[in-house]
Amino acid sequence: MNIKAALLALLAYGIFSTHDVVVKFVSANISAFQIVFFSSLLSFPLLTLMMVRDATPGHLRPKHPGWTAIRSLVMSVIPVSCFYAFSVLPLAQTYALLFATPLLITLLSIPILGEKVGLPRLGAVLVGFVGVLVVLRPGETELGLGHAAALVAAFGSAFQSVILRKLSNDERRVVLMLYPMLTTVVAMGLALPFVYVPLTAGELGGLTIIAIFGFCGTLLLVTAYTFGEAAVVAPMQYSQIIWATIYGALLFNEKVDLLTLVGAGIIIASGVFIVVREARGGRSSNTPVLQTRSRAAIGGGLNVSFLLKRNSDEKPVE
Prior knowledge:
By secondary structure, the chain is mainly alpha-helical.
């Protein structure tokens, strides 16, 4: 079953990578704010369906309004940052920076979840950040808003994931989904008058593809996590660097330099080590990275964690 899950996850991340290519094409003429607004708006029918079918007793008032508000604000920033990074940076470089999310989750889980992180995982985090520096090459490469946006997306994704882990046992799924989506639509709606441009038929088709591919990729990822172990499925996200290299070369004439690949390799190795370490078990029961059952940033999409029906059965972690 793990092999089937891995193959499904590879297909899901291939679809997500294609989704991001369409984002890069569409964002050539449309602001990230406008793309996120419409992609979030298109998610509301599915959310409404989930709310109708959710039999969990309770109301839509959050039990932890402070954390819910913080997470909602952060989640409104993630897709804009991510889409902007895709629009101005090479695909492979953007993915390499987004792959820092598991490293940041590990660090943020210490103050927020009270996670006990041993020296092996801390060492992996430090090595991973060396990989980030290799990709960025401060002093040699002219760093711009695109690099900052990718790092903001990675940090925001990690932050909201840790908060989600903190709240998931107390809050209803619809509450955890509704407020971030409403916040995103409102925030993007406020920005829309300043950036709106009329959509051509091609651009409207592109937005439709973004919504459909995001939905299909999410469903495949849900199925993969249902069939297989998180420790097997989670590392499949790193296959996106392969898609990014291929798409970048064929569609955008992007050449991936050796240092970007080396830095990405270091970040990926660190992330895989953390996932394996959590799966092997140790002193803590939080397993924050394994519990993050989604890719780093799905703009306007649904988080995989909400759609999984079974509880995690991962072992404790050191």
